[in-house]
Design goal:
Layout: H1 5-23, H2 28-45, H3 51-85, H4 88-97, H5 103-121, H6 126-137, H7 142-152, H8 160-173, H9 177-204, H10 214-235, H11 240-258, H12 282-288, H13 290-301, H14 307-314, E1 317-323, E2 329-335, H15 340-354, H16 359-372, H17 374-392, H18 395-407, H19 411-426, H20 429-447, H21 451-466, H22 470-480, H23 486-516
Antiparallel strand pairs: 1-2
Helix pairs in contact: 1-2, 1-18, 2-17, 3-8, 3-15, 3-16, 3-17, 4-12, 5-6, 5-7, 5-8, 5-9, 5-11, 6-7, 6-22, 7-9, 7-22, 7-23, 8-20, 9-10, 9-21, 10-11, 13-15, 17-20, 18-20, 19-20, 19-21, 19-23, 20-21, 21-23, 22-23
Protein backbone atom coordinates (compact mmCIF):
# COMPACT_ATOMS: atom_id res chain seq x y z
CA UNK A 1 0.00 0.00 0.00
CA UNK A 2 2.89 2.30 0.90
CA UNK A 3 4.10 2.24 -2.75
CA UNK A 4 0.85 3.80 -3.87
CA UNK A 5 0.96 6.65 -1.37
CA UNK A 6 2.61 9.16 -3.77
CA UNK A 7 0.02 8.25 -6.43
CA UNK A 8 -2.96 8.89 -4.15
CA UNK A 9 -1.32 12.06 -2.91
CA UNK A 10 -0.78 13.16 -6.52
CA UNK A 11 -4.36 12.60 -7.63
CA UNK A 12 -5.80 14.09 -4.42
CA UNK A 13 -5.97 17.68 -5.82
CA UNK A 14 -7.71 16.39 -8.98
CA UNK A 15 -10.24 14.45 -6.89
CA UNK A 16 -10.88 17.59 -4.83
CA UNK A 17 -11.48 19.54 -8.06
CA UNK A 18 -13.96 16.90 -9.31
CA UNK A 19 -15.89 16.96 -6.00
CA UNK A 20 -15.91 20.78 -5.89
CA UNK A 21 -17.23 21.13 -9.44
CA UNK A 22 -19.63 18.18 -9.65
CA UNK A 23 -20.90 17.71 -6.10
CA UNK A 24 -20.56 21.06 -4.36
CA UNK A 25 -21.32 22.94 -7.62
CA UNK A 26 -18.43 25.36 -7.00
CA UNK A 27 -17.90 27.69 -10.00
CA UNK A 28 -15.03 26.28 -12.10
CA UNK A 29 -12.69 29.26 -11.60
CA UNK A 30 -12.93 29.00 -7.79
CA UNK A 31 -12.56 25.20 -7.87
CA UNK A 32 -9.40 25.47 -9.96
CA UNK A 33 -7.87 28.14 -7.74
CA UNK A 34 -8.48 25.96 -4.65
CA UNK A 35 -6.98 22.96 -6.47
CA UNK A 36 -3.96 25.02 -7.53
CA UNK A 37 -3.35 26.05 -3.89
CA UNK A 38 -3.61 22.41 -2.81
CA UNK A 39 -1.20 21.31 -5.56
CA UNK A 40 1.34 23.92 -4.43
CA UNK A 41 1.21 22.70 -0.82
CA UNK A 42 1.56 19.02 -1.83
CA UNK A 43 4.41 19.59 -4.32
CA UNK A 44 6.28 21.76 -1.80
CA UNK A 45 5.92 19.32 1.12
CA UNK A 46 6.14 15.91 -0.59
CA UNK A 47 7.90 16.51 -3.92
CA UNK A 48 10.40 18.93 -2.32
CA UNK A 49 9.89 21.61 -4.96
CA UNK A 50 11.43 24.94 -3.96
CA UNK A 51 9.24 28.03 -3.48
CA UNK A 52 11.21 29.80 -6.23
CA UNK A 53 10.56 26.98 -8.73
CA UNK A 54 6.85 26.92 -7.82
CA UNK A 55 6.60 30.70 -8.22
CA UNK A 56 8.26 30.61 -11.66
CA UNK A 57 6.08 27.66 -12.74
CA UNK A 58 2.90 29.53 -11.76
CA UNK A 59 3.99 32.71 -13.57
CA UNK A 60 4.97 30.77 -16.70
CA UNK A 61 1.70 28.77 -16.66
CA UNK A 62 -0.53 31.81 -16.09
CA UNK A 63 1.15 33.74 -18.93
CA UNK A 64 0.91 30.73 -21.23
CA UNK A 65 -2.79 30.47 -20.35
CA UNK A 66 -3.25 34.10 -21.40
CA UNK A 67 -1.17 33.79 -24.57
CA UNK A 68 -1.99 31.90 -26.75
CA UNK A 69 -5.05 30.18 -25.18
CA UNK A 70 -7.14 33.07 -23.82
CA UNK A 71 -6.30 35.35 -26.75
CA UNK A 72 -7.72 32.76 -29.20
CA UNK A 73 -10.89 32.18 -27.17
CA UNK A 74 -11.34 35.93 -26.69
CA UNK A 75 -10.93 36.54 -30.43
CA UNK A 76 -13.30 33.70 -31.34
CA UNK A 77 -16.09 34.80 -28.97
CA UNK A 78 -15.56 38.45 -29.92
CA UNK A 79 -16.07 37.65 -33.61
CA UNK A 80 -19.25 35.75 -32.76
CA UNK A 81 -20.59 38.53 -30.48
CA UNK A 82 -19.93 41.19 -33.11
CA UNK A 83 -21.78 39.11 -35.73
CA UNK A 84 -24.73 38.93 -33.32
CA UNK A 85 -24.56 42.73 -32.90
CA UNK A 86 -24.46 43.44 -36.66
CA UNK A 87 -27.27 40.86 -37.16
CA UNK A 88 -25.09 38.93 -39.63
CA UNK A 89 -25.74 35.77 -37.61
CA UNK A 90 -29.50 36.24 -38.30
CA UNK A 91 -28.82 36.23 -42.05
CA UNK A 92 -26.85 32.95 -41.83
CA UNK A 93 -29.59 31.44 -39.64
CA UNK A 94 -32.39 32.44 -42.05
CA UNK A 95 -30.52 31.05 -45.05
CA UNK A 96 -29.97 27.73 -43.27
CA UNK A 97 -33.57 27.44 -42.11
CA UNK A 98 -34.86 27.82 -45.66
CA UNK A 99 -32.84 25.02 -47.27
CA UNK A 100 -35.17 22.08 -46.59
CA UNK A 101 -38.57 21.27 -45.04
CA UNK A 102 -37.24 17.87 -43.84
CA UNK A 103 -36.38 17.72 -40.12
CA UNK A 104 -33.70 15.11 -40.72
CA UNK A 105 -31.86 17.22 -43.28
CA UNK A 106 -32.23 20.32 -41.11
CA UNK A 107 -30.69 18.61 -38.09
CA UNK A 108 -27.68 17.64 -40.24
CA UNK A 109 -27.36 21.19 -41.57
CA UNK A 110 -27.89 22.97 -38.26
CA UNK A 111 -26.46 20.70 -35.52
CA UNK A 112 -23.73 18.96 -37.50
CA UNK A 113 -22.57 21.29 -40.30
CA UNK A 114 -23.35 24.74 -38.88
CA UNK A 115 -22.69 23.56 -35.30
CA UNK A 116 -19.31 22.21 -36.46
CA UNK A 117 -18.55 25.54 -38.12
CA UNK A 118 -19.46 27.49 -34.96
CA UNK A 119 -17.25 25.15 -32.94
CA UNK A 120 -14.37 25.74 -35.36
CA UNK A 121 -14.83 29.51 -35.30
CA UNK A 122 -15.84 30.24 -31.72
CA UNK A 123 -16.15 27.09 -29.58
CA UNK A 124 -17.09 27.70 -25.95
CA UNK A 125 -20.71 26.60 -26.02
CA UNK A 126 -21.83 28.55 -29.10
CA UNK A 127 -22.03 25.31 -31.09
CA UNK A 128 -24.59 23.94 -28.61
CA UNK A 129 -26.62 27.06 -27.84
CA UNK A 130 -27.16 28.39 -31.39
CA UNK A 131 -28.18 25.11 -33.12
CA UNK A 132 -30.62 24.31 -30.28
CA UNK A 133 -32.19 27.77 -30.62
CA UNK A 134 -32.63 27.42 -34.40
CA UNK A 135 -34.04 23.88 -34.13
CA UNK A 136 -36.61 24.92 -31.50
CA UNK A 137 -37.62 27.90 -33.66
CA UNK A 138 -38.26 25.39 -36.46
CA UNK A 139 -40.62 23.45 -34.20
CA UNK A 140 -38.31 20.64 -33.02
CA UNK A 141 -38.92 18.94 -29.68
CA UNK A 142 -36.62 20.87 -27.25
CA UNK A 143 -35.33 17.73 -25.51
CA UNK A 144 -34.46 16.02 -28.82
CA UNK A 145 -32.90 19.25 -30.14
CA UNK A 146 -30.72 19.44 -27.01
CA UNK A 147 -29.56 15.80 -27.10
CA UNK A 148 -28.89 15.89 -30.87
CA UNK A 149 -26.88 19.12 -30.59
CA UNK A 150 -24.84 17.80 -27.63
CA UNK A 151 -24.05 14.56 -29.50
CA UNK A 152 -23.11 16.56 -32.62
CA UNK A 153 -20.82 18.83 -30.60
CA UNK A 154 -18.17 16.15 -30.01
CA UNK A 155 -15.83 15.44 -32.93
CA UNK A 156 -15.35 19.11 -33.98
CA UNK A 157 -14.39 20.14 -30.42
CA UNK A 158 -10.94 18.59 -30.93
CA UNK A 159 -10.24 21.48 -33.31
CA UNK A 160 -12.61 23.99 -31.68
CA UNK A 161 -11.84 27.71 -31.32
CA UNK A 162 -9.45 27.57 -34.29
CA UNK A 163 -7.68 24.37 -33.25
CA UNK A 164 -6.52 25.54 -29.82
CA UNK A 165 -6.91 22.14 -28.00
CA UNK A 166 -4.55 20.35 -30.43
CA UNK A 167 -2.12 23.20 -31.05
CA UNK A 168 -1.66 23.76 -27.28
CA UNK A 169 -1.20 20.02 -26.72
CA UNK A 170 1.42 19.80 -29.51
CA UNK A 171 3.32 22.72 -28.03
CA UNK A 172 3.09 21.42 -24.47
CA UNK A 173 4.33 17.90 -25.18
CA UNK A 174 6.72 18.93 -28.01
CA UNK A 175 5.12 16.90 -30.82
CA UNK A 176 4.72 17.93 -34.48
CA UNK A 177 1.31 19.60 -34.78
CA UNK A 178 0.50 18.19 -38.26
CA UNK A 179 1.21 14.58 -37.22
CA UNK A 180 -0.79 15.02 -34.02
CA UNK A 181 -3.72 16.67 -35.87
CA UNK A 182 -3.84 13.91 -38.49
CA UNK A 183 -3.73 11.20 -35.79
CA UNK A 184 -6.62 12.83 -33.91
CA UNK A 185 -8.71 12.89 -37.11
CA UNK A 186 -7.82 9.23 -37.79
CA UNK A 187 -8.86 8.16 -34.26
CA UNK A 188 -12.17 10.04 -34.59
CA UNK A 189 -12.82 9.03 -38.22
CA UNK A 190 -15.48 6.45 -37.38
CA UNK A 191 -17.51 9.00 -35.41
CA UNK A 192 -17.48 11.47 -38.29
CA UNK A 193 -19.32 8.83 -40.31
CA UNK A 194 -21.56 7.39 -37.54
CA UNK A 195 -22.74 10.46 -35.64
CA UNK A 196 -24.78 12.05 -38.48
CA UNK A 197 -26.84 8.81 -38.50
CA UNK A 198 -27.14 8.95 -34.71
CA UNK A 199 -28.47 12.52 -34.62
CA UNK A 200 -31.04 11.67 -37.31
CA UNK A 201 -32.19 8.68 -35.21
CA UNK A 202 -32.50 10.96 -32.17
CA UNK A 203 -34.62 13.51 -34.02
CA UNK A 204 -36.62 10.95 -36.04
CA UNK A 205 -37.39 8.67 -33.12
CA UNK A 206 -35.31 5.64 -34.10
CA UNK A 207 -33.21 4.00 -36.82
CA UNK A 208 -36.20 3.87 -39.19
CA UNK A 209 -35.79 7.65 -39.69
CA UNK A 210 -32.63 6.98 -41.73
CA UNK A 211 -34.71 5.45 -44.53
CA UNK A 212 -34.90 7.97 -47.38
CA UNK A 213 -31.94 10.05 -46.21
CA UNK A 214 -29.20 7.38 -46.00
CA UNK A 215 -27.24 8.76 -48.98
CA UNK A 216 -27.28 12.38 -47.86
CA UNK A 217 -26.30 11.34 -44.29
CA UNK A 218 -23.38 9.25 -45.52
CA UNK A 219 -22.19 12.08 -47.77
CA UNK A 220 -22.50 14.45 -44.81
CA UNK A 221 -20.09 12.29 -42.76
CA UNK A 222 -17.62 11.58 -45.57
CA UNK A 223 -17.43 15.24 -46.67
CA UNK A 224 -16.67 16.18 -43.05
CA UNK A 225 -13.96 13.56 -42.60
CA UNK A 226 -11.94 13.79 -45.83
CA UNK A 227 -11.26 17.58 -45.80
CA UNK A 228 -10.49 17.39 -42.06
CA UNK A 229 -7.83 14.77 -42.66
CA UNK A 230 -6.23 16.50 -45.66
CA UNK A 231 -6.11 19.88 -43.92
CA UNK A 232 -4.74 18.31 -40.71
CA UNK A 233 -1.89 16.58 -42.58
CA UNK A 234 -0.80 19.65 -44.54
CA UNK A 235 -1.77 22.63 -42.37
CA UNK A 236 -2.03 21.49 -38.74
CA UNK A 237 -4.71 22.22 -36.16
CA UNK A 238 -6.26 25.59 -36.99
CA UNK A 239 -8.42 24.74 -40.00
CA UNK A 240 -9.55 21.05 -40.06
CA UNK A 241 -12.92 21.71 -38.35
CA UNK A 242 -13.53 24.72 -40.63
CA UNK A 243 -12.79 22.68 -43.75
CA UNK A 244 -14.89 19.68 -42.68
CA UNK A 245 -17.96 21.67 -41.61
CA UNK A 246 -17.94 23.98 -44.63
CA UNK A 247 -17.50 21.15 -47.14
CA UNK A 248 -20.30 19.09 -45.56
CA UNK A 249 -22.53 22.19 -45.37
CA UNK A 250 -22.13 22.78 -49.11
CA UNK A 251 -22.57 19.06 -49.96
CA UNK A 252 -25.72 18.62 -47.84
CA UNK A 253 -27.21 21.90 -49.15
CA UNK A 254 -26.65 20.88 -52.78
CA UNK A 255 -28.13 17.42 -52.20
CA UNK A 256 -31.10 18.86 -50.29
CA UNK A 257 -31.81 21.31 -53.11
CA UNK A 258 -31.54 18.54 -55.71
CA UNK A 259 -34.01 16.29 -53.86
CA UNK A 260 -37.14 15.70 -55.90
CA UNK A 261 -39.01 13.45 -53.45
CA UNK A 262 -41.62 15.06 -51.20
CA UNK A 263 -40.84 14.86 -47.47
CA UNK A 264 -42.87 12.28 -45.54
CA UNK A 265 -45.48 14.03 -43.34
CA UNK A 266 -43.96 12.77 -40.05
CA UNK A 267 -40.60 14.43 -40.83
CA UNK A 268 -41.94 17.61 -42.42
CA UNK A 269 -41.37 20.95 -40.69
CA UNK A 270 -44.79 22.61 -40.49
CA UNK A 271 -45.10 25.72 -42.64
CA UNK A 272 -45.94 27.97 -39.66
CA UNK A 273 -42.47 27.18 -38.23
CA UNK A 274 -40.61 27.64 -41.50
CA UNK A 275 -39.25 31.13 -41.35
CA UNK A 276 -40.27 33.17 -44.34
CA UNK A 277 -36.76 33.44 -45.67
CA UNK A 278 -36.18 36.67 -47.47
CA UNK A 279 -34.06 35.99 -50.52
CA UNK A 280 -30.77 37.63 -49.68
CA UNK A 281 -28.58 39.01 -52.45
CA UNK A 282 -25.06 37.71 -53.02
CA UNK A 283 -23.58 40.96 -51.62
CA UNK A 284 -25.72 40.69 -48.45
CA UNK A 285 -24.54 37.10 -47.97
CA UNK A 286 -20.91 38.07 -48.53
CA UNK A 287 -21.22 40.90 -46.04
CA UNK A 288 -22.80 38.56 -43.47
CA UNK A 289 -19.90 36.12 -43.90
CA UNK A 290 -17.19 38.81 -44.02
CA UNK A 291 -15.72 38.19 -40.54
CA UNK A 292 -15.54 34.40 -40.95
CA UNK A 293 -14.17 34.69 -44.50
CA UNK A 294 -11.40 37.02 -43.33
CA UNK A 295 -10.54 34.75 -40.37
CA UNK A 296 -10.25 31.83 -42.80
CA UNK A 297 -8.10 33.81 -45.25
CA UNK A 298 -5.75 35.26 -42.59
CA UNK A 299 -5.15 31.90 -40.91
CA UNK A 300 -4.60 30.27 -44.30
CA UNK A 301 -2.07 32.98 -45.30
CA UNK A 302 -0.09 32.42 -42.08
CA UNK A 303 -0.17 28.62 -42.50
CA UNK A 304 2.57 26.35 -43.95
CA UNK A 305 0.89 26.80 -47.38
CA UNK A 306 2.52 30.24 -47.57
CA UNK A 307 5.99 29.74 -46.02
CA UNK A 308 7.23 33.26 -46.84
CA UNK A 309 4.33 34.95 -45.03
CA UNK A 310 4.47 32.42 -42.18
CA UNK A 311 8.16 33.03 -41.62
CA UNK A 312 7.75 36.85 -41.86
CA UNK A 313 4.98 37.02 -39.22
CA UNK A 314 6.77 34.48 -37.01
CA UNK A 315 9.71 36.90 -36.73
CA UNK A 316 7.52 39.30 -34.72
CA UNK A 317 7.86 37.38 -31.47
CA UNK A 318 9.34 37.54 -27.97
CA UNK A 319 10.81 34.70 -25.92
CA UNK A 320 10.73 34.97 -22.12
CA UNK A 321 13.01 32.45 -20.35
CA UNK A 322 12.15 31.11 -16.87
CA UNK A 323 15.28 29.59 -15.25
CA UNK A 324 13.99 26.96 -12.81
CA UNK A 325 17.47 25.47 -12.22
CA UNK A 326 20.84 25.66 -13.99
CA UNK A 327 19.68 22.95 -16.42
CA UNK A 328 15.89 23.40 -16.50
CA UNK A 329 14.57 26.40 -18.46
CA UNK A 330 10.97 27.04 -19.48
CA UNK A 331 10.79 29.27 -22.55
CA UNK A 332 7.57 31.16 -23.24
CA UNK A 333 7.29 32.26 -26.85
CA UNK A 334 4.83 35.04 -27.60
CA UNK A 335 3.93 35.44 -31.28
CA UNK A 336 2.58 38.98 -31.56
CA UNK A 337 0.96 38.40 -34.99
CA UNK A 338 1.21 34.71 -35.93
CA UNK A 339 -1.02 33.47 -33.10
CA UNK A 340 -4.57 32.72 -34.33
CA UNK A 341 -6.09 34.95 -31.62
CA UNK A 342 -4.49 38.11 -33.01
CA UNK A 343 -5.41 37.15 -36.59
CA UNK A 344 -9.04 36.58 -35.52
CA UNK A 345 -9.23 39.97 -33.76
CA UNK A 346 -7.79 41.77 -36.82
CA UNK A 347 -10.23 39.90 -39.11
CA UNK A 348 -13.13 40.75 -36.77
CA UNK A 349 -12.31 44.48 -36.78
CA UNK A 350 -12.02 44.59 -40.59
CA UNK A 351 -15.10 42.40 -41.09
CA UNK A 352 -17.01 44.49 -38.55
CA UNK A 353 -16.43 47.62 -40.65
CA UNK A 354 -17.67 45.75 -43.74
CA UNK A 355 -20.80 44.74 -41.77
CA UNK A 356 -21.44 48.37 -40.84
CA UNK A 357 -20.23 48.47 -37.23
CA UNK A 358 -18.47 51.66 -36.11
CA UNK A 359 -15.42 51.80 -33.85
CA UNK A 360 -17.28 52.64 -30.58
CA UNK A 361 -19.63 49.66 -31.18
CA UNK A 362 -16.71 47.32 -31.88
CA UNK A 363 -14.86 48.50 -28.76
CA UNK A 364 -17.94 48.13 -26.54
CA UNK A 365 -18.54 44.59 -27.86
CA UNK A 366 -14.85 43.79 -27.26
CA UNK A 367 -14.88 44.97 -23.64
CA UNK A 368 -18.23 43.24 -23.14
CA UNK A 369 -16.60 40.00 -24.35
CA UNK A 370 -13.67 40.39 -21.94
CA UNK A 371 -16.19 40.88 -19.11
CA UNK A 372 -18.21 37.85 -20.30
CA UNK A 373 -15.07 35.68 -20.24
CA UNK A 374 -13.53 36.94 -16.98
CA UNK A 375 -14.26 33.72 -15.04
CA UNK A 376 -12.98 31.59 -17.92
CA UNK A 377 -9.81 33.70 -18.05
CA UNK A 378 -9.18 33.01 -14.34
CA UNK A 379 -9.97 29.29 -14.74
CA UNK A 380 -7.72 28.74 -17.77
CA UNK A 381 -4.71 30.65 -16.41
CA UNK A 382 -5.03 28.71 -13.13
CA UNK A 383 -5.35 25.33 -14.91
CA UNK A 384 -2.25 25.94 -17.06
CA UNK A 385 -0.37 27.14 -13.96
CA UNK A 386 -1.46 24.01 -12.08
CA UNK A 387 -0.43 21.70 -14.94
CA UNK A 388 2.99 23.42 -15.09
CA UNK A 389 3.49 22.96 -11.32
CA UNK A 390 2.48 19.28 -11.57
CA UNK A 391 4.94 18.81 -14.42
CA UNK A 392 8.05 20.59 -13.09
CA UNK A 393 7.65 19.07 -9.61
CA UNK A 394 7.64 15.52 -11.00
CA UNK A 395 4.08 14.83 -9.79
CA UNK A 396 2.85 13.92 -13.30
CA UNK A 397 5.75 11.51 -13.77
CA UNK A 398 4.74 9.75 -10.53
CA UNK A 399 1.11 9.43 -11.67
CA UNK A 400 2.13 8.13 -15.11
CA UNK A 401 4.53 5.56 -13.68
CA UNK A 402 1.93 4.17 -11.24
CA UNK A 403 -0.83 4.00 -13.87
CA UNK A 404 1.45 2.14 -16.27
CA UNK A 405 2.63 -0.23 -13.50
CA UNK A 406 -0.98 -1.06 -12.57
CA UNK A 407 -2.55 -1.35 -16.03
CA UNK A 408 0.44 -2.42 -18.16
CA UNK A 409 -0.41 -2.72 -21.86
CA UNK A 410 -4.09 -2.26 -21.01
CA UNK A 411 -3.35 1.44 -20.47
CA UNK A 412 -3.94 2.09 -24.18
CA UNK A 413 -7.56 1.08 -23.83
CA UNK A 414 -8.20 3.52 -20.97
CA UNK A 415 -6.15 6.47 -22.31
CA UNK A 416 -9.24 8.09 -23.94
CA UNK A 417 -11.17 7.76 -20.64
CA UNK A 418 -8.61 10.06 -18.99
CA UNK A 419 -9.17 12.67 -21.72
CA UNK A 420 -12.95 12.33 -21.34
CA UNK A 421 -12.67 12.80 -17.57
CA UNK A 422 -10.70 16.01 -18.12
CA UNK A 423 -13.42 17.53 -20.32
CA UNK A 424 -16.24 16.20 -18.20
CA UNK A 425 -14.85 18.05 -15.19
CA UNK A 426 -13.51 21.26 -16.77
CA UNK A 427 -15.91 21.54 -19.72
CA UNK A 428 -13.05 22.12 -22.15
CA UNK A 429 -10.94 19.95 -24.48
CA UNK A 430 -8.14 22.47 -24.12
CA UNK A 431 -8.13 22.17 -20.33
CA UNK A 432 -8.23 18.37 -20.56
CA UNK A 433 -5.17 18.42 -22.83
CA UNK A 434 -3.34 20.87 -20.56
CA UNK A 435 -4.10 18.72 -17.50
CA UNK A 436 -3.42 15.27 -18.92
CA UNK A 437 -1.40 15.67 -22.14
CA UNK A 438 1.93 15.31 -20.36
CA UNK A 439 0.63 12.31 -18.37
CA UNK A 440 -0.24 10.53 -21.64
CA UNK A 441 3.13 11.15 -23.30
CA UNK A 442 5.02 10.06 -20.17
CA UNK A 443 2.91 6.88 -20.03
CA UNK A 444 3.72 6.34 -23.74
CA UNK A 445 7.44 6.67 -23.01
CA UNK A 446 7.26 4.08 -20.22
CA UNK A 447 5.23 1.69 -22.42
CA UNK A 448 7.51 2.30 -25.47
CA UNK A 449 4.45 3.45 -27.43
CA UNK A 450 4.45 6.30 -29.96
CA UNK A 451 3.64 9.39 -27.81
CA UNK A 452 1.62 10.89 -30.70
CA UNK A 453 -0.85 8.00 -30.45
CA UNK A 454 -1.58 8.52 -26.74
CA UNK A 455 -1.58 12.33 -26.90
CA UNK A 456 -4.13 12.05 -29.73
CA UNK A 457 -6.12 9.55 -27.62
CA UNK A 458 -6.40 12.19 -24.88
CA UNK A 459 -7.87 14.70 -27.33
CA UNK A 460 -10.15 12.12 -28.93
CA UNK A 461 -11.42 11.02 -25.50
CA UNK A 462 -11.91 14.64 -24.50
CA UNK A 463 -14.42 15.09 -27.34
CA UNK A 464 -16.62 12.36 -25.81
CA UNK A 465 -16.60 13.86 -22.32
CA UNK A 466 -17.77 17.15 -23.84
CA UNK A 467 -21.34 15.96 -24.46
CA UNK A 468 -22.07 15.29 -20.79
CA UNK A 469 -19.89 17.94 -19.14
CA UNK A 470 -21.95 20.02 -16.67
CA UNK A 471 -20.91 23.15 -18.59
CA UNK A 472 -22.40 21.82 -21.87
CA UNK A 473 -25.55 20.60 -20.09
CA UNK A 474 -26.00 24.04 -18.46
CA UNK A 475 -25.73 25.69 -21.89
CA UNK A 476 -28.30 23.23 -23.31
CA UNK A 477 -30.68 23.93 -20.39
CA UNK A 478 -30.53 27.69 -20.93
CA UNK A 479 -30.86 27.33 -24.74
CA UNK A 480 -33.97 25.13 -24.41
CA UNK A 481 -35.33 27.22 -21.48
CA UNK A 482 -35.96 23.88 -19.74
CA UNK A 483 -35.06 25.01 -16.22
CA UNK A 484 -34.60 22.12 -13.82
CA UNK A 485 -34.32 19.62 -16.69
CA UNK A 486 -30.51 19.35 -16.61
CA UNK A 487 -30.54 15.80 -15.25
CA UNK A 488 -33.08 14.70 -17.91
CA UNK A 489 -30.91 16.16 -20.70
CA UNK A 490 -27.81 14.56 -19.18
CA UNK A 491 -29.41 11.11 -18.86
CA UNK A 492 -30.65 11.44 -22.47
CA UNK A 493 -27.05 12.04 -23.58
CA UNK A 494 -25.26 9.68 -21.18
CA UNK A 495 -25.84 6.45 -23.14
CA UNK A 496 -24.39 7.99 -26.31
CA UNK A 497 -21.36 9.19 -24.34
CA UNK A 498 -20.83 5.71 -22.83
CA UNK A 499 -20.92 3.97 -26.22
CA UNK A 500 -18.67 6.68 -27.73
CA UNK A 501 -15.95 6.22 -25.07
CA UNK A 502 -16.10 2.39 -25.17
CA UNK A 503 -15.79 2.31 -28.99
CA UNK A 504 -12.97 4.85 -28.87
CA UNK A 505 -11.06 2.95 -26.15
CA UNK A 506 -11.33 -0.30 -28.11
CA UNK A 507 -10.28 1.44 -31.32
CA UNK A 508 -7.24 3.15 -29.74
CA UNK A 509 -6.06 -0.09 -28.10
CA UNK A 510 -6.84 -2.57 -30.90
CA UNK A 511 -5.58 -0.44 -33.80
CA UNK A 512 -2.32 0.09 -31.96
CA UNK A 513 -1.74 -3.58 -31.13
CA UNK A 514 -2.96 -4.91 -34.49
CA UNK A 515 -1.36 -2.40 -36.88
CA UNK A 516 1.10 -0.07 -35.17
CA UNK A 517 2.94 -2.05 -32.49
Amino acid sequence: MHDYFPFFLGIFPLLVMIVLILKIKTPIHYAVLITLALTLIITYLFWNTSVRTLGLAITYGALKGLWPIIIVILGAIYSYNLMQKTRSMDVLRDVLAGISDDKRIQVLLISWCFGGFLEAAAGYGTAVAIPIGILIALGFNPMKAAVASLVANTVPTAFGAVGIPVSILAEQVHLPVTTLSATVVAQLALFNILLPFVIISIIGGGIKAIRGVFGITLVCGVTTLVPQYLVAIYLGAELPAFAGSLTSLIAVTLMAKARKKATEPEYRISSDHQTSVASYSASQLLRACAIYLLIFVFILLCSPLFPAIKSAVSQVASVIPFYLTETQVLKLKIDWIATPGVLIIIATLLGGFIQGANLPTMLSVFFGTVKQLKNSIIAITAIVAMATVMDVSGLIATLAQTMVDVTGGGYLFIAPVIGALGTFVTGSDTNSNVLFGKLQTMAAEKLHVDPVWLAAANTAGATGGKMISPQSIAIAVSATRMEGQGSAIMSGTLKYCGVYIVILGLKVGLVYYLFLA
